[in-house]
Amino acid sequence: MEHIIAKLLHEFEEGKLTRRQLIQSLTLAATAASAVSGVPATAAEGKVLNATNINHVSYQVADYARTRDFYAGLFGMKVSEDNGKQCRLSFGDNILVVRSRPPAPKVDHIAFTLANWDEEKEAVEAELKRRGLKIIQGDTKTSLHILDPDGFEVQMGGLRQ
Questions:
Q1: Does 28 share its domain with 106?
Q2: Helices vs strands, H then E, count in the chain
């Protein structure tokens, strides 16, 4: 799986894939990997956090306004929460967050919506700690951030993060 992701990112960085193609390919790869791998060993030892969908993908870009205008103009994405440095671009049930933040371009993090977040957020935090995962950012009201085994930032929370 790591090899596939590295290849996709390399192709994206070389301009062989569009951002849309990258997201679609990463989603397909993750879905395929989860179907093949079954339940991870650590899940048997504790609570499984039920991700229901990808909440948003966060991009670091050189000029968020240029990126905002590109995606809104080409794909009709709805612009919201534009604060002059970043904004959300909504399409269907998906959100692309674009931020002016160096180094760019780079996928900053992927956020997952968890089932029953509002009722189980304290249990989620306890399970992350039980697994030895360090919470690097967040407050339990909206979301938590951790690093995956490869150091990639993963955010999890409710629908509104």
A1: no
A2: 5, 8
Q: pLDDT tens digits for 101-158?
A: 888 788 889 898 998 998 999 999 999 998 888 999 866 688 999 988 768 888 999 8
What are 42-82's pLDDT values in tens digits? 555 678 888 888 899 998 888 899 889 988 988 888 999 99
CA distance 49 to 53: 12
Single-letter residue type at 136:
I
CB atoms inside a 10 Å sphere around CB 55: 23
**Domain identity same for 96 and 110:** yes
81 and 105 assigned to the same domain: yes
Half-sphere exposure of 46 (CA within 13 A, CB side): 12
